[in-house]
Amino acid sequence: MTRNGNREGASTPHMLVVGTFLFLLAVVLAVAPLPLLVRSLGIVLATYAAFTFAGLPFAFAAALLAPVAGLLTGGEAWLVMLPLMLVSGLLALLGLDYAWRVGALVVSPLLYALPQLIVWVLSQRALFAVALPWSPSAPIWLGLHALAAVVGTAVALWWRRSSAPARRRRR
User: Fold this and answer.
1) Where are its TM segments located (predicted)?
2) Position 90 pLDDT exceeds 50
């Protein structure tokens, strides 16, 4: 695997088609009239799928551009959660890229959940009190997003590991 997250020997047109499809899937999930939790989880899973099958550039596009597209149809709840989703996605991808292999299984989900956990804890204090759209079910939100990040990282590790012997056989 190269440093930018692309598989060695993968054809560029194939990665372009798959990456574009996964990015557009993330955009559709962001603008679809779905509950906020489902939209956010869909973007997280599409981001990890884009990393796995198309490389880091498409994953960054899905994590950083698709949530912004959700402003087209999202209400004020989407606008409130947008900075949190952008920061979480960026940190998760940086953790996935720089702590690749076994370390990424812990680092990427942790970096994804950490900003959300900090916001949840601080929003309960008087100084930082803000009504977040996840207020009644914040632990469920945090748990599902952390689980999605763990599953996405595990699938990326498994896919890259299982495709490595095939690349060696072709050479």
Assistant:
1) 15-38, 45-66, 78-98, 110-134, 140-159
2) yes
Give the DSSP per-residue string, 156-167.
Answer: HHHHHHHHHHHH
Torsion over CA: 76, 59, 146, 28 (sign): positive
Indicate the burial class of 52 (C-beta count within 10 angstroms; 0-12, 13-18, 19 or more): buried
Print burial letters for 73-111: b (CB count within 10 Å at least 16), e (below 16): ebeeebebbbebbbbbbbbbbebbbebbeeebbebbbbb
Element (H, E) at 152: helix 138-170
pTM: 0.86
Q: Provide the pLDDT for residue 3.
A: 47
Residues 80 and 96: their CA atoms lie apart, in Å, by 26
**101-90-26 Cα angle (round to 5):** 95
pLDDT tens for each residue of 103-144: 889 999 999 999 999 999 888 888 777 778 887 788 899 999
73 Cβ contact list (under 8 Å, min separation 6): 31, 32, 33
Distance between CA atoms of residues 171 and 162, nearest Å: 16
| Number of alpha helices (DSSP H) and beta strands (DSSP E) in the chain | 7, 0
Question: Six-digit token pair at 53?
Answer: 């099958």
Which of 83, 77, 100, 85 has its CA nearest to residue 2? 100
